[in-house]
Specification:
Elements: E1 5-20, E2 33-52, E3 56-75, E4 78-98, E5 102-120, H1 123-131, E6 134-147, E7 151-159, E8 161-162, E9 168-170, E10 173-175, E11 182-190
Antiparallel strand pairs: 1-2, 2-3, 3-4, 4-5, 5-6, 6-7, 6-8, 7-11, 9-10
């Protein structure tokens, strides 16, 4: 918008699948699992940035997102799915080192997720998300970009820390909050 502020829009469609013969974190101590799912997200943000010495850029963005998800779970004799929607509010400060062909970014994001319209056949996670609809995360990330001035390949590693202390127990089993602790992503960054 100006030489110090920017607007960000992002729309995503996600697919995932995971199959393993060993998964120790699942309730009831199952050794077989088969997970899959998909989701949609639309995100908008507004931010401020400041350039220092032409190569170092400090930024801070605020985001709001609307999203939906559908997960399918097959663990031992348990089969089910659960789906729902969530809103996300986030703030993300970052610092970037930038040259014509390379960028390196260190960032951290604090998120608030609010789940609603939770439905499904897999009552353990349905109950968890219904009883703890508000969740907070801290997500540091490292992003590398390489390429031409207007088009760059982007690689990102991000780690998530769940900040809530709520734990749900069912039949004397602790139920873990369903989130991915580490994410690796690849894509293209276009400067239009």
């Amino acid at each position: 918008i100006t030489n110090r502020t920017a607007i960000l829009f992002n729309a995503n469609k996600y697919y995932g699948y995971n199959k393993s013969s060993r998964f120790n974190g699942f309730p009831f101590g199952s050794n077989n699992y088969d997970l899959g799912g998909s989701g949609h997200a639309f995100e908008a943000g507004y931010g401020y940035y400041k350039v220092h010495d032409r190569r170092i850029i400090a930024e801070v963005y605020g985001f709001v997102a609307l999203a939906s998800f559908c997960n399918n779970t097959h663990v031992g004799d348990l089969n089910g799915n659960f789906n729902g929607k969530f809103t996300r509010l986030a703030i993300q400060p970052s610092i970037m080192y930038k040259t014509k062909y390379f960028e390196a970014v260190v960032s951290s994001r604090i998120n608030h997720l609010h789940y609603y319209k939770i439905r499904g056949q897999y009552e353990l996670y349905d109950e968890l998300l219904e009883n703890t609809p508000d969740n907070f995360f801290f997500e540091p990330a490292i992003t590398l970009r390489i390429g031409l001035n207007k088009v760059k390949l982007q690689l990102q590693y991000q780690h998530s820390y769940w900040l809530n202390s709520n734990t749900l127990y069912k039949d004397n089993n602790e139920i873990k909050y369903p989130f991915t602790k580490m994410n690796f992503t690849a894509g293209l960054k276009l400067d239009l």
